[in-house]
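Entry 14. Ran structure prediction on the chain below.
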Amino acid sequence: MWPWPAKYNPLARAQAAYNEFFGDVKTTSDNATSAVVQTKKETGQAVQQWTIDNRDGLLKQANDMKVVGDNTFKAGVVMAAMGAPVAGVGAAPGGAVASTGEAISTTGAFLEIGVELVSGNYKNASLNIGSEVRYTALNYVRAKAIDTLIPFSLRGLDDIIDLSKMTLTSIENLFKQEADETIEKLKSKDDNDR
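Output, structure tokens:
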């Protein structure tokens, strides 16, 4: 028996249709993937350029957040120390205000680090990261030390423990502000010094 001519062979026609269909699918998939990768790259470049263009404003906003957070923290410590009855009596209301202030300050610090990283100023970013890591570790050690020194809980003692933690944190923040001022002097102010 002789072979079917290619144009009449049903298996060859099915093979050709299969190859054509999946070739088109592969081409479409490759084009879509390429477009997504290109769009992602362009978006990243646009975000980086926008960050560079608005770097000074973003850094000012980050610094303002840190100042507001630090001042809110101080107000919370004073409230806790005075036992101000905001939502109750004792250190709890002041602790909540102090925690909020600390969160705002930390958000400002992370915004500053992000802006420095995205804009390519790695020296300033590394100085900020080092400062935040150092004080986060110090904060953790301080809290654990107090918990270890006073491992039990008595009625009324919890407020004293919380107040002690906030007082030590307030002292840490004073040192941190002094260190931050020194770090600001070390930072590159010139965009060419990246």
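Residues 6 and 99 are 79 Å apart (CA to CA). Will compare against last week's run tomorrow.
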